[in-house]
Structure formats: C-alpha cells, structure tokens
Amino acid sequence: MSGGFGLRLRPLTDDKPKALIPVNGRPISEYQIEWLAKEGGVDAVTFACGYKWERLKEHFGSRYNGVEVDYSVEEAPLGTGGGIKRALSAHKGEGALVVTNGDIITDLPLKRMTEEFQNAGGISASMLVVPYRSRFGVVKIDKLKTVRDFDEKPAFPDVWINGGVYVLNGNKIGKTLPEKGDIERETFPKLVTHGELLSYPYYGDWNYVDSIKDLMELEASLKASA
User: Fold this and answer.
1) Which of 47, 119, 180, 201 ranks highest by number of CB atoms within 10 Å?
2) pLDDT tens readout for residues 156-192
3) Neighbouring residues of 84: CB distance < 8 A, sequence distance ≥ 6
4) Residue 11, preceding bond cis, omega within 30 degrees?
5) For residues 149 and 30, what is the distance between their CA atoms, to the nearest angstrom?
6) d(Cα 79, Cα 87) in Å, to the nearest integer?
7) CA-CA distance, 104 to 81, in Å (whole number)?
8) Pick the catalytic residue: 111, 153, 175, 213?
9) How far apart (Å, rounded) are the C-alpha atoms in residues 198 and 4?
10) Active-site residue 52, yes or no?
11) Is the pTM of this model over 0.70?
12) Which CATH number is 7-225 given?
C-alpha cells in the first residue's frame, strides 16, 4: 500500500512517493520486496499507488530481483480499503494474499503467518499485531512522589497494536472492502463481529517510517545490526 502523500516525511516526499524514501541509501520498498520474496515466497507484487506513482514505475519497471511488479493506480485517494479492493480487482488467483503497509521493515517469518492463516480453515483475514511501544519515556515514581527511575520508550508486551501486515482470503475479503475508505475502520470491525479476523502476535523486529525521526532511528538500528 503506497498511495499516501507522506506528509510527515516532507521535504523527502516532495518529489517522490513514500515507498521510494531511502533507508541507508536504498528505497524502503526494495527492503519490502526482498523480504516478501525471502520470507513469504512471494513472486508478484502490486503497488496500490497514486501520488507520484510514475517514479515507482521508473525505478522498478515490471520486475525487481525476479519478482514481477505491477501498479494499481488511484486517480484520487481511495483509503487503504479502497486501494486494496482496486488492486485485488485484477487478481484472478486463489489462496492467501499478503498485504502490507508501504512504510514497514520487519523480519516477520511471513511463511509461518501464512501457514497459520491457512490452517485456520477459510477465515477471511489475519493481522500482524506487535507490542505497543511508547513514543515517550516513562517516569516511575513512588508513593511519596519521588522519582525513582526512567524507562526510555518502553514496550508493553500485553498491549497489542496493528502491525500493518495482513494475510487475506482473496475469495472472501472483497465482499467487505469499501470502494473508498480504510480497511481498519470499514472492514476489520465487520470481520470481528463474525469471528473472521485472526491475529498473529510477533515480538521480533518491526519498524515503521512515519516521520523523519522514525527514519533516523531505523537507519541507526540497521547499521548497528549489520
């Protein structure tokens, strides 16, 4: 999903879509395609795109590292749900489909998530969930209001957030996707009502790039682990 304007990443997105923002010299979408192929066995990718999508096509063409690349272009923003529905309208295959936000880098074992989804028996969708990580430091105080400790941007292992990676049943999900609107607000609540949304909790490496600060922290993390 690469249809957003990347407003919080300006000026980096003034002349390119968010999917081409460089992370240590390489577009974030290159990391994603390589991860999809390695961890999920994906052999074809469709960008649900709009803003400056021509730059994506100039960069990737019709194939990247053996992965077929296509483009579902939105003339006007359709939201995540509408964008997915438009992209899936040309899909004629069966089985599990992987959808990911265009600003995530993770080492999630995608094959395991897909297998768990398939073993669930015809469910509509599975959602990656990751522990909530505070964007702020936590101050710990005692009963006398004395500050005792600081915890810089802690994770809360019992509080889960949407990790922006989904495995979908292509034959079922289209019926619940809006023509225009977000999958998070329009589709998932309906699936929850019918017990059709599975979660895949993951404690491993997961990062998203929503701001310049996020980008700098991700680059530092990747360099440290290289």
Assistant:
1) 47
2) 878 899 999 999 988 888 888 989 999 999 999 999 9
3) 1, 48, 99, 168, 173, 177, 183
4) yes
5) 40
6) 12
7) 18
8) 153
9) 26
10) no
11) yes
12) 3.90.550.10
Domain ranges of the chain: 7-225
Query: What 3 state SS string does the chain have?
Result: CECCCCHHHCCCCCCCCHHHCEECCEEHHHHHHHHHHHHHCCCEEEEEECCCHHHHHHHHCCEECCEEEEEEECCCCCHHHHHHHHHHCCCCCCCEEEEECCCEEECCCHHHHHHHHHHCCCCCEEEEEEEEECCCCEEEECCCCCEEEEECCCEEEEEEEEEEEEEEEHHHHHHHCCCCCCHHHHHHHHHHHCCCEEEEECCCCEEECCCHHHHHHHHHHHHHHC
Amino acid letter for position 43: D
Residues with Cβ within 8 Å of residue 93, at least 6 apart in sequence: 170
Nearest to 117 by CA among 187, 183, 200, 40: 200
Contacts of 175 (CB under 8 A, 6+ apart): none
pLDDT on residue 165: 95
Instruction: Select from 72, 125, 67 the least CA-distant residue to 98.
Output: 125
* pLDDT-flagged residues of the chain (< 50): none
